[in-house]
Predict the structure.
Amino acid sequence: MQAVKRWALLFCAVVSCSSAGSAQGPEQTKQLARDIFKQLIEINTTDSVGNVTTAAEAMATRLRDGGFAESDIHVAGPKERKKNLVVRLHGTGKRKPILFIGHLDVVEARREDWTTDPFEFIEKGGYFYGRGTEDMKEGDAILVTNFIRLKKEGYVPDRDVILALTADEEGGTSNGVDWLLKEHRDWIDAEYCINLDGGEFEKDKDKRLLAGIQASEKVYVDFQFESLNPGGHSSIPSPDNAIYHLAGALARLQSFSFPVKINEITRNYFERNAALTTGQVAADLKAVAHQPPDNAAVQRLSANPYFNSLLHTTCVATMLSGGHAPNALPQSARANVNCRIFPGEDPQDVLHTLERVANDPKVKVSIVAQIGPDGKVTPVVAVPPSPLLPELVQATEKTLSVAWPGLPYVTTMSTGATDGKYTRIAGIPTYGISCMFFQRNDSRAHGKDERVGVQDFYDGVEFNYKLIKELSAPR
């Protein structure tokens, strides 16, 4: 009998040690997250000379070492340097899958512009420095860390949880999300998608201000304004000058404002933010959230560039070219006009509006073609906002209330653009949840000396881990 008891105690001890070894403690998790983050930052993934495939394969190796089967990992893409990573954590199938996305590519960074090497991971003064620390290799590292963590724990969700890390969000012609949807929809098809490249978790120094969940974003479309002319000798000036025609059209565009647009997402944003401010701004935010919105409040808020971009489609001239010689009348003059189109608005309607605003038969307005990974022109279409799913809202609010009690929660519309547009167009509701806080007045994404707070990164790892579980735990 004593021998049986000793054997039982030994068996329990072995099982306990084995279980402890399969899960990670807090310090192990932090070290893993840091190591993955460092590895990603030090792989150059710019469009010019970088290699996204190298980063995708490095993360695939980490996931294999973390326990994922080869059959659950895909590294594929349309070009040798632009391959994407997809991994699946299998669940019971009780509910439909959730997709998490992030992009591996980064914008260009010149060493001479930075005080540190942009492709060296450096920790100093409570920050991590390097290209991609804010946009968005911190999110990639968070996701890979937590997928490994969940796998080692033996966690079995009630739905599959999918991770896709992709190429060419920042530019290039091989956008990974677009390619996966067209070529391997079954790898990433999901009930909804969470994009760590969206949402605003804002802080001011050490004070956390709000958690913004992106449920909508504007559509990026470039238009060309073009004026052509036979030209001639500059000694014989002509009023029929291509540059003058173009300048007049752009001047009319400058003074034009698109009609006010408000949807469920921006209305919620205005209502929630009204409670976070005071004075006339608070009153105006409440007034524009009414149906219909107060016109005077709209006018006052529109004087602020950010509020203006939330209330309207916006179009601005960004590039100019014209003429062919200093002593000749210009034969051509062109301008790129970049528009950020309100969700649900048809780009063709914007084109017709710009033609009316230009108001000159000598100025042709056209949509600049977007080329897809297959080399073909990608149609520009309206992008719908994502509905506020009760399941997601409740899970996010619960996770926030545990992590940071009392933190205001708002839904937002991004004035920029992310890969969420592809999943939304494909019928997969998408929500930007960054999971970590960034300084409100110190955004360095795409800029020099890009950085994120060390503790903010580790807090983001924990928040994302708890959110994944809240969204997928068996019920």
